[in-house]
Amino acid sequence: MKKTLSVLFIGAWAAVAVGCGQGAGKEVSSSQSSGSSAPVKVMKLATVSPKERSLTQGLYKFGEIVEKESGGSIKVEVYPDGQLGGDIQTFEGMKMGTIHGSTMSTGLIASFAKRFNVFDLPFLFKDEATAYKVLDGPLGKELLNDLPSTGVIGLNYWENGFRHLTNSRREVKSLDDIKGLKIRTLENQLHIDLWKELGATPTPMAFTELFTALEQKVVDGQENPAGNVKVSKFYEVQKYMTLTGHVYNASPFMISKKFWDSLSDKEREIMTKAAEEAKDFQRKANQKEGSDATEYLRQNGMKVTELTAEQKKQFFDKVQPVYKKFAPTIGEDYVNKLYEAVR
In this structure, how many other beta carbons lie within 10 angstroms of the beta carbon of residue 206? Predict the structure, then answer.
């Protein structure tokens, strides 16, 4: 595996309140909106992302398409900013059928379906194009098949983007600079171990609690895509950002299985098509969001540091114990197939 990882790395970098309704699908009389006596199915989508972010905008796009294609028989409501709870609460809500859909990072989904940790292995993808080919191919689809047993249906992969490190104490250009920093991480053991190996003190917490924790110096820093750093205004309480790109965050779009089972074949077809259109819209928006956000952060006082390929390789070498620990849990065969697909 060590040899395989080395080849992978060289190849890659050288190229460089839960819900108001109960059960599945609350129905209300459509006479309130369309004048018809047929009931309208209300679909509630929740996310911790702010309204401005591309992930939330993707949910709005999905809803717009579904409402149009269904002729108004399905009404989609979007609840951003963690209004219905954090990611874990949202996933639990989908299992119960009180929340009908969401998109969230694979690292959080791994709390319910362990193999989803595979896409959070550090420095796996060198760019978005590589990630798309793998996620949209057989290996990505195979992984989505793990979700029905957890109570959700995975339709496809959107993206949160590459995660970067920010902090309020010092510029980070080397492993030594990370030592001792208290870094907020996802509530995921792989992410916790990743930052331990890099020398930081990881502190898992919900995204909805993060700004206050940074402001009150409970933690020194955090790691998120640039778009999150901008719209959540972390630049107001963080001085330094290093473009580590340590994890590419795929963000599967999921629907509550209880809600999915309540749909007709035609309604499922509408939602599947809408999810594909929303995926393409969201990915394009996220790439623009990331580049625009990085420039915005520079202009608003953050010192943005880029790492060389050699510096990134030092980071990659340092986190090899993470690969060794999690590959058996994910499945050696699947991990090896993924490496081959990435290469």
Answer: 18
Can you tell me the distance from the alpha carbon of 200 to that of 176, in angstroms, rounded to the nearest whole number?
A: 10
Checking phi first, is residue 63 left (phi over 0); if not, alpha (psi -120 to 50) or beta? Answer: alpha
Rg, C-alpha atoms of the chain: 20
Residues 245 and 164: their CA atoms lie apart, in Å, by: 5
List, for residues 165-208, the tens digit of each pLDDT value. 999 999 999 999 999 999 999 888 999 999 999 999 999 998 88
What residue type is assigned to position 17 of the chain? A
SS3 sequence of the chain = CHHHHHHHHHHHHHCCCCCCCCCCCEEEEHHHCCCCCCEEEEEEEECCCCCCCHHHHHHHHHHHHHHHHCCCCEEEEEECCCCCCCHHHHHHHHHHCCCCEEECCHHHHCCCCHHHHHHHCCCCCCCHHHHHHHHCCHHHHHHHCCCHHHCEEEEEEEEEEEEEEEECCCCCCCHHHHCCCEEEECCCHHHHHHHHHCCCEEEECCHHHHHHHHHCCCCCEEEECHHHHHHCCHHHCCCEEEEEEEEEEEEEEEEEHHHHHCCCHHHHHHHHHHHHHHHHHHHHHHHHHHHHHHHHHHHCCCEEEECCHHHHHHHHHHCHHHHHHHHHHHCHHHHHHHHHHHC
CA distance 131 to 248: 8
pLDDT tens-digit series, residues 251-266: 999 999 999 999 999 9
**Dihedral angle over CA of 322, 323, 326, 329, nearest 10:** -170
CA 82 – CA 49 distance, rounded (Å):
7
